[in-house]
Amino acid sequence: MSQTPVEQAPMQTANGVKGNFRWLVRHPIWAFVVIVFIFFSLMTDNFFSFGNFENILVQTSTLGLIALGMTIVMINGNIDLSVGAMVALAASLTVDIMGWPIFQSWGNWQLLPAVLAGLGSGVLLGALNGLIVWKTGVDAFIVTLGAMLGVRGLVFVYTGEQSFFAMNFAYADFGASRLLGLPTLAWIFLAFTVVMHVILSRTVHGSNTYAVGDNREAAVNAGIWVGPHMMINFMIVGFFAALAGITLSTQMGASTPNLGRDYELWVITATVLGGTKLTGGAGNIIGTFGGVLAIGILRNGMNLMQVPAFYVLVTLGVILIAVLFLDKQLNRKGEEELRL
Amino acid sequence: MSEAKPVLQLEGIVKTFPGVRALDGVSFDVRPGEVHALMGENGAGKSTLMKVLAGMYRPNEGHVYIEGTPVVMANPIEAKEEGVILIHQELSLAEQMTVAENVFLGELPRSRWGFVDWKVLDNRVGTILKKLNCDFGPRTRVGDLSIAKKQMVEIARALTHHAKVVVFDEPTASLTDAEKVVLFDVINDLKADGVGIVYISHRMEEIFTISDRISVLRDGSYRGTLMTAETDEDEVTQLMIGRSLDYSRSVEHGEIGDVTLEVEGLSCGKLYRDIGFAVKAGEVVGFYGLVGAGRTEIAETLFGLREPSAGTIRLGGKKVTIDSPAEAIENGISLVPESRKEQGLVLGMNCRDNITLPQVGDMTAGPFVSNGAEIAIYDMYRDRLDIKAPSWRSLVGNLSGGNQQKIVIGKWLAMKPRVLIVDEPTRGIDVGSKAEIHNLIRELARSGYAVIVISSEMPEILRVSDRVIAMYQGRIMREFTADEVNEDNLVQAISGIGNGKAA
Predict the structure, then answer these.
(1) Number of separate domains in chain A
(2) pLDDT digits (tens, 9 = 90+) for B402-438
């Protein structure tokens, strides 16, 4: 039976309460998810229904998809601030290209080159981010900050500040479609969550991701190709940002140049809530999934309670700091700890 | 000796960095089944040579032969495939990952589709750990291990391959004596298998215990190879630094004054228990013990970095509580920490700023930092400690280890302490500067400071201390005077088999 290195599934440690408790200490965000879940179930009539859960899943799927990629980049010790801009670029490209005259006779097949171009733009930009980080040694924060500004600018140039509408209605239909009792978009999110969890916890690439973020020099010494390795991870997050842009635009049947603004901050919040460290080397998909759900439930629940949107932001800010403080307390070494 | 052809041969290796010729035509060879020690002062080019061997640097000129065939190793993986394995001096481990993953880092066994084959991994690492007598399993998280055990993980990497050459770069830096024995057993096993071993160390006694031949580097060039059996420490030292060293113990005692620091019943959780000792002005008290015996933790407590769970500290007869380093400094306690580069210095700052760092708040002229006062302090300690730096503007990071250590010591002397605690004063410092630091410590005691020296090197402790306190697992086992202490009773005391009184 194979177990994961840093992550042990709950079933395997569930020898009684102690194992569960330890699991919770490692993923305090899930305790929080349960608490807010119960809280909103009691406080509002509309929260506890299957339809609303579906809503939450679809609403968070955009953030969630990007967070999956962000997790792997952050475990690597990097960060990608350009994901929001990539969302807008991929969405604009996809919606625009499907309306190009050359594909007019393709019927629904005109979606194919459009989606491929959208995804390709994300992967390509990710590769470019990774390449610059690799070859110049400039901090990923700065490189992707530049990309965030530059790409957003490009989107405005490309679209001429216009919103695009999807000419092929199958595109918007897809966003509203269902599969086996769940919205298709929810399935996409769940499926990729599983895929990324497996990649991160079971594959050599996943192990190397932790090693590079944990001790980069050790990784170099051990012969891991750190540069290309990081580039692949930037391509992964680029792919997910583009995918999120496409799913988001299918929901609206349109794209706007402002799409995905501030997403990088939400995604990083969700990832950090899930226990991924900004310094790299620690984190996992189970935590990130919890972080994404926590944000989704809070937004949805407070919306149902008719709390004004700005208070939602205040609450989330407080919760972010509180959860990280709790995490630090739970993982303290006790009274023998060095005072610094 | 007409032995089999060398398993590894270097010929005229030259490696230049912008402005520096780090290796200048180095040639030497390692025969199968021999331990070839490589010695030289810091900066002599040992590390660069090892990085060439491990495929991390490519030499500008020269050839590397393995079993007679010329090879080019472009990266660490290729070097491993050629059978050259480097055990790094500085722990090169990923703390959050398991022992097994660390041992096979970079080449985890795969099953289909890039999945890690945990079963194979656990089995192979389990076998290796058993061979090394390690009491932890492959699934232990490396971050939870002590430094010595981490070192064993590093060593375990040598056994993953069918190695032809294994390079040990200061492997015993943090090993306990018991673990050293295991390491030497491992080395002997490797020898018996016909593996060539390159062994780098600053510790003469180890070199003479384990090695067959000794090669010496100085300033990037090869100085010669000696047969261990036919040479002695003095000859090796001469090759290394170009002169002889005075190893005599400076027994000259200063005037011993009143008790400056007195500690009673000091405990801190599980780290150490019931510690009691006294240090008088003008004497050096040495703390000796294995890594993890609690010596550094006591120093950290005295310096206000840890909170004791019981016990009293008296300074000059007055009971004090020390809650922070600021209070410790106020009370006249200074700590020269174990790790100079991480804890002692701001490497990117210049010499002057490092020396005045703790007191810069007091040295003001109006709203500004008084430049003149700072330089005056630097000049004073440069002369007193004989710090060799081009000017006060030089960055501390560019100085040699010995001079860096003097800057740290100068920094704390400038605070006018009564008690000076020095933790591992010569770690990573070459033999030439070591003697200088030792003399400096003696001199400081003579001028009236109460000095505590913590060290894992027995010759060092024996050379500088007036009294030696031996620790074992957080307890003081025995206190020796300079006259009664010798290597045998000291080793017994720190291994917990001391028959002496438990102080």
Answers:
(1) 1
(2) 888 888 888 888 888 889 999 888 877 777 778 888 8
Q: How confident is the model at residue A151 (pLDDT cuts 50, 70, 90)?
A: very high
If asked whether residues B64 and B174 sit together in one domain, one would say: yes
Distance between first and last Cα of chain A: 42
Burial class (CB in 10 A: 0-12, 13-18, 19+), A52: middle
User: Which letter does DSSP use for residue A318 in this model?
Assistant: H
Q: Could you tell me if B300 lies within 8 Å of chain A, comparing CB atoms?
A: yes
Q: Is residue B298 within 8 angstroms of chain A, CB to CB?
A: no
Range of the domain at B478: 259-345+417-494
Check CB contact under 8 Å for A6 and B96.
yes
Q: Is the pLDDT of residue B401 over 90?
A: no
Q: Is residue B323 part of a domain?
A: yes
Give the end-to-end CA distance of chain B in Å, rounded to a whole number. 53
Residue A117's pLDDT band (boundaries 50, 70, 90)? very high
Chain A residue with minimal CA distance to B117?
A2
**Which domain, by its residues, includes A234?**
58-330
Q: How far is CA B64 from the centre of its chain?
A: 30
Domain match, B220 and B320 both: no
pLDDT range class, residue B502, cuts 50, 70, 90: very low
**Residue A245's domain is classified under what CATH number?**
1.10.3470
**A137 φ/ψ sector (left φ>0, alpha ψ -120 to 50, else beta):** left
Q: Residue A282 and residue B110: Cβ atoms within 8 Å?
A: no
* 3-class secondary structure, B357: helix
Cα B233 vs. chain centroid, distance in angstroms? 20
- Pure H helices in B279-430: 295-302, 325-330, 351-356, 371-385, 401-413
A218 closest CB neighbour out of B105, B108, B324: B105
Angle at A302 between CA A296 and CA A308, to 5 degrees: 120
Looking at residue B497, its pLDDT comes to 60
* pLDDT tens digits along B346-370: 888 888 888 888 887 777 777 878 8
A25: its two tokens: 């200490």
The reply to whether residue A221 touches residue B56, judged by beta carbons under 8 angstroms, is yes
Residues in chain A with CB shorter than 8 Å from the CB of B76 are 220-223
- Which one of B93, B110, B306 has the shortest CB-CB distance to A215? B93
Q: How confident is the model at residue A267 (pLDDT cuts 50, 70, 90)?
A: very high
The residue of chain A nearest to residue B118, with distances taken between CA atoms, is: A2
**Of A183-187, A189-193, B87-91, B308-312, the least confident:** B87-91
DSSP-H helix ranges across B213-252: 233-241
Q: Are B237 and B266 in a shared domain?
A: no
Would you call B23 an interface residue with chain A, using a CB distance cutoff of 8 Å?
no
Q: Which residues have C-beta within 8 Å of that of residue B178, sequence separation ≥ 6?
A: B495
The pLDDT value given to residue A118: 92
Could you say which of B80, B116, B119 has the minimum Cβ distance to residue A223? B80
The predicted pLDDT at position B57 comes to 82
What mean pLDDT, rounded, does chain B reach? 81
Q: Among A6, A210, A338, whose Cβ lies nearest the Cβ of B305? A: A338
Number of structural domains chain B divides into:
2
Look at chain A and count its residues: 340
B115 at interface of A, judged by CB pairs closer than 8 A? yes
Q: Say if the Cβ atoms of B94 and A202 lie within 8 Å.
A: no
**Cβ B129 vs Cβ B156: under 8 Å:** yes
A141-to-A82, A145, B377 alpha-carbon distances in Å: 10, 6, 40
Question: Looking at the complex, does the CB of residue B271 fall below 8 Å from at least one CB of chain A?
Answer: yes
Specify the CATH number for the domain of residue B469.
Answer: 3.40.50.300
Q: Tell me the H-state helices in chain A.
A: 10-13, 17-26, 28-43, 50-75, 83-97, 111-136, 140-159, 169-176, 184-202, 204-214, 216-221, 226-252, 263-273, 285-304, 309-330
